[in-house]
User: What shape does this take?
Amino acid sequence: MTAPWHILVVEDDPVFAGALATALRRRGYRVDTAAEAKRAIALAVAEIPDAAVLDLKLGENSGLALIQPLKALNPTMQIVLLTGYASIATAVEAIKLGATHYLPKPADTDEILAALGRVVGDIEVALPEEPMSVDRLEWEHIQKVLTEHDGNISATARALKMHRRTLQRKLMKRPVRE
Amino acid sequence: MTAPWHILVVEDDPVFAGALATALRRRGYRVDTAAEAKRAIALAVAEIPDAAVLDLKLGENSGLALIQPLKALNPTMQIVLLTGYASIATAVEAIKLGATHYLPKPADTDEILAALGRVVGDIEVALPEEPMSVDRLEWEHIQKVLTEHDGNISATARALKMHRRTLQRKLMKRPVRE
DNA sequence: TATAACCTGCGACAATTTGCCACAGGCTCG
DNA sequence: CGAGCCTGTGGCAAATTGTCGCAGGTTATA
Assistant: This one.
């Protein structure tokens, strides 16, 4: 790792994109963000990145479609797919298309970096990161789905295939400190 | 396919193995079955197969360990992993090791055959429009951490701040289907 | 404006799932 | 061999869930 890595983040949720970009910059990476495919390609052509973090669900289209164009620009580019709508089918497809790794959200910044760095086997990234506890993971996921449903508890419980009563009880409890 | 393909089925459930073998033979393939890794390799060396169907969970060891030896015998061998304990983490691993495809059980014979013949990008993968249920998310997370710890249950339980006994019980259960 | 269709909070109780302790056996390292 | 770790299991008490039911609030609409 001579110069600081240049990482391209393609993600259509501006809040998450911003948070991720900030977290990455704080760690010394140069980061560009794009909210959709066309702009992502334009940025990548302008300055070819060393790595990319792609959201699977970019509005209409799929982040999968970006893998090959990006790989064509730089065959050693490390690409991680990140998504709140993970599935085995898309994971298989992503890896076959050349992605380095595939992570279901929520994933924290260090996990993402570890995924990018793992195959390169570089010295930079500290692998031994503590994973989120299941409680914390559950809490984050519930919060995300809850906001997607505008705070509607019944709808959220249905989407999560969880009993409304149980969801209510979980929400009443502490936001899980660690 | 000109000559009838020779398919190796490695599966430790004799009932399922028998059913799959019969179904494949009925379709004109030549099939060998093995219940465990050692025998699978012996059969493969005796007559190098064109394709293999591996169970991910072969008693003690993992079907993942068979991928590379088989590929070494015949680099064009098509390998499909099949498992009742599917997770994104192991799917990613399998594909990286060279598997052609990865299917959660139950998968019917035609699906398996389709997977063996499949080429990258030849079918559209549907993007899931529902987020994962909390149970499913938990399963995926556990599997991810477990593979990061090379299958060490005690270490995984510690990392997850979860009781080892509890983790064991969760692992024995089936992953959540949706 | 009455009505149906949802949502929410909450009590109660049974069914499950955890947290914990303990023990036995397997494996590896020095 | 002994120390240290890992794993599978049994048994219980404690905690969490799954279910029902009910009262009261909102919202869309005929």
